Amino acid sequence: MHKPEATVIGLVGGTGDLARRMVIPGCFHLMLAGLLPDACRIVGLSLDELDDDGFKDVVRHSLEEHARVDLEDEAWERFSAMLSFGHAQDASDYKRAIGAAEKALGGSPRRLFHLAVPPSAAAAVVKTIGEAGLADEDRTRVILEKPFGTDLDSARTLNASLHEILTERQIFRIDHFLGKEGVQNVITLRFANAFIEPVFNRDHVDSIQIDVPEALTIVGRAGFYEQTGCLKDMVTTHLLQVLGFVAMEPPVSLHADALRDRTGDVFQSLQPIDPACVVYGQYEGYRDEPGVAKDSTVETFVAAKVEIDSWRWAGVPILLRTGKALAAKRQVVTIVFKEPPMRLFPWEKDVKDARNALRFDIADPPGIALEFLGKEPGPALTVQESELQLSIDPEEVEELLGPYERLFHDALIGDQTLFTRADGVERIWEIATPLLEAPPKPLPYAQGSWGPEAADDLAGECTWELTRAPV
Ligand code: BG6
């Protein structure tokens, strides 16, 4: 992987929860992997009354709690030598804090701002960066966190305000699912090999399923969740972004825009989501969580059937499902293939029990499995369900960067391939509009279940792969 050029990293909201859980440990892991720039400064920017030493204490605690490895003295010394803090209220504060770090590095280092701020504050922070004279196109990049708006209008307004200060080339909208090794397996398997593509279309595929059940409840995130809900937290972000990769046409190259043009085509051909093809659920006990309204109608579960109206996928049901407090934690993309034209071998089970499917496990450790019917050992020419599995060596898994870190490094080297683009984000909100305007009533479901039964009815004959197979 490339070593980034000299950079000043500005962590806006650098003492908050996201920075302490993900961003600071992420930078630390990149340093350990030798992937931070040799000349690097990390500047915490927030409204706290802290000095450099106070910020270093925050960082040290963050690493003690969230780093994947024990904090050794030598590593801490190297990391803490990069840190400084700026109380950042207005443009002159930004200019002073970033300017001092640039001076310490010498020359004209790049700047990478990470905005760990509420979405409503993102545009204002970018404006301040502009006012401080720190938004030069050839030097500055900005990482933004989801959600990128909450509907089509707010997404357009946000993008328009960002574009007043920054060009699209400078904006890195992070969706950590795209940093997952398992999601990248989808494009490598599809486009590094010749045998998948001929069957990867409506002639051979029965359904595409993106299934991300989570076992945890909202665990103390009521404030965020009551505002956001499952659709915006997971579906209009992670699941649809993953679908972009699963369903895309072959790109002409791996350049960021070549790839994002093709995922953009998927979003363009996704049909507006019909609320009649969506099931919302709310787990029993959700309204008793601290901070949740007693009459909350926020959905903690979404199952949806969507369609891509394209030459390749027209008519193929695309099933999406995710939710909290479900029976398992999995992150799975399954391509279910049609049955063979005739059943030659005796098989007493239902046809749907014996299907061919290609399954990508996208959670770490990632894996790929091919489900098929193989010969049952013995004298008779009978078949049984079989599976070919490809998993990566546990030692290699340990060496992998986390998805978030991988993307942070991409932003450091200016590679936008795995970041979402303004047009894609807006199109997703556009297709979600009918659902946002007429959301179904959430149906109750028991914690530890697979959600409301209506979600099984929605899948119909396609049946959910995860519920069908032993989990
Ligand atoms: C986050 C959502 O973006 O992704 C969470 O806000 C969800 O609600 C999480 O649990 C899933 O992430 P991971 O790390 O399990 O892939």
Describe this structure in words.
The chain has 471 residues and is α/β, with parallel strands linked by helices. The chain contains 14 helices and 15 strands. It has helices at 17-32, 52-66, 73-80, 91-105, 119-131, 152-165, 181-191, 222-247, 256-269, 394-399, 403-413, 422-437, 454-459, 465-468; strands at 7-12, 40-46, 83-87, 110-115, 140-144, 171-173, 205-213, 278-283, 301-306, 318-323, 332-337, 357-361, 367-375, 383-391, 443-445. The strands form 2 sheets. A 9-stranded mixed beta sheet has the order 14-13-12-11-7-10-9-8-15. It has a 6-stranded parallel beta sheet with strand order 3-2-1-4-5-6, sandwiched between helices. Helix 4 (91-105) packs across helix 5 (119-131), helix 5 (119-131) packs parallel to helix 6 and helix 8 crosses helix 9 (256-269). The radius of gyration is 24 Å and the shape is globular. The relative contact order is 0.14. The structure holds 6-O-phosphono-beta-D-glucopyranose. Residues 214, 233 line the site of 6-O-phosphono-beta-D-glucopyranose (BG6). Residues 214, 233 line the site of 6-O-phosphono-beta-D-glucopyranose.
Q: What key attributes describe this structure?
A:
2 domains; nine-stranded mixed beta sheet; 15 strands; 19% strand; Rossmann fold; 37% helix; single chain; globular; alpha/beta; 471 residues
